[in-house]
Amino acid sequence: MGPLPKRKLSKGRRDRRRAHDAIGVPTLGECGNCHQPVLPHRVCPHCGYYKGKQVLDIKDKKSAKK
Fold it and tell me: Among 4, 13, 39, 40, which residue has the fewest nearby CB atoms (within 10 Å)?
């Protein structure tokens, strides 16, 4: 049998330990081509550029609806 805690952890001690576990707001960068906010190290969903090169062909929303 492995080691067991001698006393129950109080709610305050447990919650203080978990205080840093929350998911934070993602950091956004700016697309170098269209200047829209994008997640880092990802293709821009607005224009399809990544590191100054077009890697996805994004069609206009107007032409996609027709």
Answer: 4
Q: Over the stretch 5-28, which tens digit does the pLDDT of each residue have?
A: 999 999 999 999 999 999 999 999
Instruction: Using the Cα atoms of residue 29, residue 30, residue 36 and residue 40 in order, give the sign of their dihedral.
Output: negative
**Beta pairing partners, 37:** 30
d(CA 51, CA 66): 31
Could you tell me which residues come within 8 angstroms of residue 34 by beta carbon, excluding any fewer than 6 positions away? 44, 46, 47, 49
Instruction: Give the three-state DSSP class for 61.
Output: helix
Percent helix, percent strand, percent coil in the chain, to nearest 5:
25, 10, 65
Render pLDDT for 22-48 as a digit per residue (tens, 0 to 9): 999 999 999 999 999 999 999 999 999
